[in-house]
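Dear colleagues,

As part of the handover before I leave the project, I'm documenting each prediction I ran so the next person doesn't have to rerun anything. This entry is a single chain, and its sequence is reproduced below.
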Amino acid sequence: MKIGAGQVLHSVAVATVRSIARTSALAATVVLASCGSSSAGSQGPSTTFQTASETLPSPVGPDTIAPPTSTPPSSSVAPTTATPTTAEPTTTTAPSLSPVSPYEPAETEVLKHRKRVGGQFAQALLTYEATATAESHAESLREQFGVLDDEGLVDLAAEAMSLGSQSVGTVRYVQMGGNRPTKASLMVWVDVEQLSPDGAVARESRVVDVRVEGVEDRWTVERLASAGGPAVVRPDNLSDLAASVVDDPRISMPDSARWDIYSGHTTAEMLQRMLEVAELTDYSVLVLSRGHPYRVFATESVSRHSVGQAMDVYEVGGIPVVDSRFEGSPTWTLAKTLFDDGIRSIGSPWAFDGFGGRSFTDDVHQDHLHITS
């Protein structure tokens, strides 16, 4: 049977219509599936499909339909949770003063065994914790140094202590105050730092008279004779002469000596002598009266220091007397000048006019000059 041209055209038209119908049905199915996946009642992470218009390319031929493509479901990203951080606990340390090594005399010192014991005891006297009391501190000193005679130790400790504060003492110098074969007096300049509970730091310097006894290199503390006296506030009506001495940058002295001047104990003649010496050289006074034996050591004679008429100088021109015991040194020059100028009495490492005159020397006066008014 021959197929005419009309039949061929009819068949092609029918095939085209059927192809279009199949394409429309497939597109409708995709759309319905997409709508169903986003219904309000769905649970869990949603999956997103692309629309038919995004996935259907143009036909490549009259009977070819490209299959729809879809993007794989996107992965659901789990919400991140910040990890709480905990700050390290902070510890507040209360301020405190640094400890100081126990005093040791220099190699050039005289009578070192005596000086070591006296210096270390004076340093310990002025070193204590804020919780210490005069009684507990005195007991600690007894145990540490084996004090032979502790009468008055508590009272003298209380005089020197700033209760409620931490205190650290540093020995500046230990000078001989008297010496016998088995007994000695050590006058110790101690610089003191005191830290109050509110963190304030106060400073003062004291001369402490420590008595020791023993033989050769075995010495112990006999007793505490002086803690440098109670502090004295500079008076508003301090005389011009006294003020010129305590304010003179050429004259160094501990607070114990300043307190002697503030209290009016040092005579005007002695103050004038101090200024005269400053015209010759700068120097360091270790003691006027406070911290010095009241009587000349091991005698019944009242010391000129005790009546405000003498000073002990342990350093001349920045050099310790103990290191200047040679002719032509700053110490020798000062001592000789004062002697030649007619000073009443001077003790030093030299006896310029022999023993028994205005100038004298002994084993005590090898580390300082004793200068009178």
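The first strand starts at residue 166 and ends at 179. DSSP finds nine helices and eleven strands in the chain.

All the best with the project,
I.
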